[in-house]
Amino acid sequence: MSLTKVSVIGASGRMGSEVCRAVDATDDLELVGRFDMGDELGDLAGADVVVEFSVPDASSKNVAHCVDNGIHVVVGTTGWSDDKRADLSTRLEQHPEVGVLIAPNFAIGAVLMMAFAQKAAEFYESAEIIELHHPDKVDAPSGTAARTAELIGAAREQAGLADVPDATTSDPDGARGARAHGIPVHSVRLRGLVAHQEVLFGQTGEMLTIRHDSFDRVSFMPGVIAAVRKVDEHPGLTVGLEHYLGLA
Q1: Rg of the Cα trace of the chain?
Q2: Which residues, other chains included, contact 222 with Cβ-Cβ below 8 Å and sequence gap of 6+?
Q3: Alpha carbons 169 and 83: distance in angstroms, whole number
Q4: How high is the pLDDT of residue 248?
Q5: Phi-psi region of 150 (alpha: psi -120 to 50; beta: other; left: phi over 0)
Q6: What does the pLDDT read at residue 79?
Q7: Which mean pLDDT values do the consecutive 10-residue runs of the chain (248 residues) have?
Q8: Edge-to-edge, what's the strand order for the sheet holding 206-214?
Q9: Pick the catalytic residue: 5, 72, 133, 196?
Q10: Nearest in space to 148 (alpha carbons), one of 168, 178, 189
Q11: Phi-psi region for residue 191, left (φ > 0), alpha (ψ -120 to 50) or beta?
């Protein structure tokens, strides 16, 4: 059986090191390269697929290098703006055989949480997101929260719902959180946490809470491995692991 060759960018980081262990433990994958900040990427050690977990400022350049070298990429780095995605889509037009997945979260439960939230969004007047992570996380809101808000906002717009109700007129210190696609998002950074999110939906007389908790980074690995196996079947840019899992 031919093994899929995998290189990891950000290999010494918290997620990257876990990815390296997971790839090493998977029979149909071969870990051929480990790369970190400052390393020359070159041909990525001849990889068929690169898993990219770096930092927002470096991610787009790393992914562009992979695409230009005809290598599929599974991206876990957050902070991809609409402009950066558009630039990547344009670059991929010159390499139509290459697939890139940008996934805000690789935990299967988190992907299901987002799918459930998208489904519930059209039925509730109010919606808010609380995301909770460790204090070493450099960006806020999390990519998962931003993606969840994007999905909820689109579902509400399609259903013809008005803005979420909020009578707040004075909030000089930002206690009501940020707004993403019209949805209030609150970010918690607390020692002892890994990655957690609650989506709250409210209607007169009831509330629906959808929550997902990752207690260990190993929870992301089944999704990463599934993405590595499937990325070559999805040329172009795909945002969200749900498209690989039949949930979109």
Answers
A1: 19
A2: 106, 108
A3: 32
A4: 74
A5: alpha
A6: 83
A7: 93 95 96 94 96 94 97 93 94 97 95 97 98 94 94 97 96 95 98 97 98 96 97 96 90
A8: 178-180, 183-189, 126-133, 195-203, 206-214
A9: 133
A10: 178
A11: beta
CB 8 within 8 A of CB 54: no
Tokens linked to 155: 């579902």
pLDDT of residue 1: 65
> Which of 84, 95, 137, 243 is labelled catalytic?
137
Amino acid at 169: T
pLDDT at position 225 is 97
- 61 is annotated as an active-site residue: no
pTM attached to this predicted model = 0.85
Q: How far is CA 91 from CA 3, 63, 99, 174, 190, in A?
A: 28, 10, 11, 38, 38
Residue 74 contacts residue 231 (beta carbons within 8 Å): yes
133 carries an active-site annotation: yes
